[in-house]
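Z., the sequence and structure:
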Amino acid sequence: MQKLKYYGSVILFFIVVGALGFGTSYVQRPHNVVIGVNLALSGEEKAYGEATARGIGMARDKINAEGGLLDEAVAVVAVDNHGSAGDAEAAVKQLTSRHAVAMIGPNLSHCALAVVRDATAAKMPVISPAGTNPDITVDHRTGEAHEYMFRATFIDSYQGRAMADYAFGQLKARTAAVVYDERQAYSKGLAAFFKQSFLADGGQVPVYVDISSDESFAAAVAALQASPCQVVYAPLYDEKAMEFIVKARDAGIAALILGPDGWNGRRMAQSLSPAYLQNLFYTDHYANDVNEPVAEEFAEAYYEKYGELPDSYAALGYDSFMMVAEAVRRSGSADPEKIAEELAKTIDYHGVTGMIALDANHDAIKPAFIMTFWQGQPALLEKRPTVQL
């Protein structure tokens, strides 16, 4: 493996964590190819960022073992955005000053939305591994795609529809409740997309409630008790989702509980007792038990390095880096504008999360996995067909 040519040891506010595979040195002067990383590596959402960073580190190591890009090893610099939109926005200028030719992240939708303006002004291509809000890549005022914004994940309209269709078709549900967090753009958007699709399928949604506060949480549980539904859709990040699941089950609510990709299945399996893992279903990007050689090779390498199987965030981080690397190779240049042009042409990237093509809006056209828990571990139920919305 070629060794990265790091220069200097100026201490900046970049967090480049050895445990995540980014080494402990800092880039002081231009590299041929410097990839910036903008993730939550601390704070409440750090589990998502750390997993994504691990996947990025594995992809970087693979690329460098194969000779790097443009005849030089790739350097990675990372900024901890703490899950804050303001810090994520500030990271764009920090990474631009470090000569990054592209940026991976943010993951969280509200953070990814915050970088659009500055990334566009800097003409820096940005690929969000897990940001699913449609407005990340498209200006909702004009309907035009943001020139420098991309994603490796499916969008909320697709996963909301995928779960609604699965609930109505496979689970035979005809009544659904929706509980969401009013403060999160991610949660609000998914709630609306699920409701729209479930109603279009012929179902009913008699309960649609916010659970952003303790008071609204209690009111939502009471509403579910008063108006029992066959399924409850809870588009929440895993910490809040687990809190809801426990409170709902303890209150005697027996409905099937459905969720989005914000449920970190491996983390939930480690945190919840087996009784609370029953009758849960969620959409995801990746499954360790999918019969795909590329995914199996990734899972084996990840397990060998970290002693555990990867989750979807690690897989999305890996794919995001590889998509950028392919764009650099095709462009034959470290010019961010040329890299963005090639990234937009991605049509047949065979990633560990599936076959990926980017549409005219720079959204990933790819399958969604319907997951559940079996014997205390995440398990694949079904691979939903790819649909271009």
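Confidence is low (pLDDT under 50) at residues 1-19, 23-30. The domain at 156-284+369-384 is CATH 3.40.50.2300 (Rossmann fold).

Let me know what you think.
H.
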